[in-house]
């Protein structure tokens, strides 16, 4: 039954976020991401917080090329991977009352049954990035709320969801795929030569 | 990984704060002593040695800038930010509190 539920959600609930005319955030269903055109999709499991920098380094290294466009893509990719992995390692794990289990920056290993996987692929122009965790805590409604409060452009210090806001702003087709209690996937594309660097705002 | 450090150079006109390495949750403790080392009313935050700044790093910077402005009545400006960090500073309002230094 769980496998059936997983398939149902994976097929039907990829959610994308955009601005409507009055400036609110709307969440829309979208077809699953296709990997056609990518020569190779890398899949790297995370076993502990100590793996984070190594995996970010791998993401940077698959963007081969010199020049300012490649360098800027590597910078954006590293930031996106950082935010996605931080969310999976520290924001996703919650106790039964919804309290965060691990403090940001704390050294931690994954608990038995817990999975975090980063997938990425680069075809010379598009870099696909996705991080999945096995907590299934990040609902599209929560993401929608975080994006809305971060749109305020004020200087609040401890604003929740700022990392998701960065992903939404930088990534083309930023999405959240959510199976309650089973899986959350957050992903999207970074382009080598985008027409805009701030996708969430257009 | 904690490869982050803050270096402060007290000049005759202003204090320059040089950030080295990635600014994230591991940088938290380094920011605690920063206020005490500021002596001038003009402060420059130099990011030319900084690496990646994630959302936690942005929160630390916002807190630090507000604290220095309030407790030291100092003005802060920013120099040396990379292309991506410049975008983050615009996106999060850091430049509203601490504008780019005039060249």
From TrEMBL, chain A:
Keywords: ATP-binding, Nucleotide-binding
GO MF: ATP binding
Protein name: ATP-binding protein
Superkingdom classification of source: Bacteria
UniProtKB/TrEMBL annotation, chain B:
Pfam family, one: STAS
UniProt cross-references to PROSITE patterns, sorted A to Z: STAS
CDD domains the record matches: STAS_anti-anti-sigma_factors
Top-level taxon: Bacteria
InterPro entries associated with the record: STAS_dom, STAS_dom_sf
Domain STAS: 17-103
Protein name (Swiss-Prot/TrEMBL): STAS domain-containing protein
Organism (species): Oryzomonas japonica
Lineage: Bacteria, Pseudomonadati, Thermodesulfobacteriota, Desulfuromonadia, Geobacterales
